[in-house]
């Protein structure tokens, strides 16, 4: 399935998204791919997290719902925002396996990177990913993130220790790599509600 980029948008995460987000947080396969919560998550916990996004108002996190043709498909966020160092960490998931590999993650990550570097004036965006999550690594390689290192045996998953790769992308690198493709998507992202 190829994705029509014009039909992709990043929107505020709202109360209406809580049931689906909670179901995804409790999906063991998705949880393992994203190094998410290790135990069951109550719907009220998810609702509290969503309410907290509005209260944080960019202090340390900004999260967006990934929508394709107005249907919730996943989540992309900048977390651990450090305004002094002008840096943040990236988190991303496209929830349903059938939607992965179609360009949603690439489009959503391009949008949030453009927002991070041009909208928020960040200098660096980093991320961590399981070394076994090859589709995600391919995405980050395509976006020209630099692999900065490996945290050996850093994550316990399904009875075994997993290595975690650490990646980073600098503002100047982003601007030189994908400026036109990302910039044509920027109108989809309306920063005035952040």
From TrEMBL:
SUPFAM superfamilies: Acyl-CoA N-acyltransferases (Nat)
Alphabetized UniProt keyword annotations: Transferase
Domain spans labelled N-acetyltransferase: 8-181
GO molecular function terms noted in the UniProt entry: acyltransferase activity, transferring groups other than amino-acyl groups
PROSITE patterns: GNAT (PS51186)
Domain of life, source organism: Bacteria
Gene3D superfamilies tied to this protein: 3.40.630.30
UniProt key word Transferase: yes
The protein's name: Acetyltransferase (GNAT) domain-containing protein
Natural source organism: Muricoccus roseus
